[in-house]
Amino acid sequence: MDLVPHVDSSNSENHPIIHTNTNSSAASSSSASTPSRYENQKRRDWNTFGQYLNNHRPPLSLSRCSGAHVLEFLRYLDQFGKTKVHNQICPFFGQPNPPAPCPCPLRQAWGSLDALIGRLRAAFEEHGGKPETNPFGARAVRLYLREVRDSQSKARGVSYEKKKRKRPPPQQQQQQQQPVLPSPGAI
């Protein structure tokens, strides 16, 4: 591949961003205000994926793109990762804070990949793609992300737990659970 990514230092996801000067009508919203950070990031990610498809050998059109091509793209991005993922044979496997350096590879963090896929999935549909043909929502991509999450959590000794829904404060819960009784004067 001939992609030379520019890592945007303001990007918390730490994956390569290729800046291009393309104007997308989908990226410019109906309001005259400046796009949000999310919209800017989504546009840059979409442009990066577009360049990846153009540089693919043979070049690939978006309509022919599948979940397998998305996986290829995610594996390509690993070379720009900044998250140390210990191999099972590494003495620091499963330790969240290893005491010394090791030769294990740097990879894209699971959270970064998950957020990237979410933005690309939205961008695909904004650019006219149908939800049922969205390659970023393919089963293989979801399984890959789950595998990356599980392997990284084991390698780093950090488990990813689903966020629990916030419950209303106890006072509100009691009010919601108590049945409404008629007042004594109403009978």
Automatic annotation (TrEMBL):
One cellular component GO annotation, for this chain's record?
nucleus
Query: Where mainly located?
Result: nucleus
Question: Biological process (GO) annotations?
Answer: mRNA transcription; response to light stimulus
Q: Where is the composition biased (Polar residues)?
A: 8-23
Q: Where in the cell is it found?
A: Nucleus
Q: Which GO terms describe its molecular function?
A: DNA binding
Chain segments carrying region Disordered: 1-43, 150-187
- Residue stretches of biased makeup (Low complexity): 24-33
What family does the database annotate? Answer: Belongs to the plant homeotic and developmental regulators ALOG protein family.
Keywords (A to Z) from UniProt: Developmental protein, DNA-binding, Nucleus, Transcription, Transcription regulation
The ALOG domain sits at 37-164
Which InterPro entries does the annotation name? ALOG, ALOG_dom
Q: What is this protein called?
A: ALOG domain-containing protein
Q: Which organism is it from?
A: Tetracentron sinense
What is an example of a Pfam family matching this protein? ALOG_dom
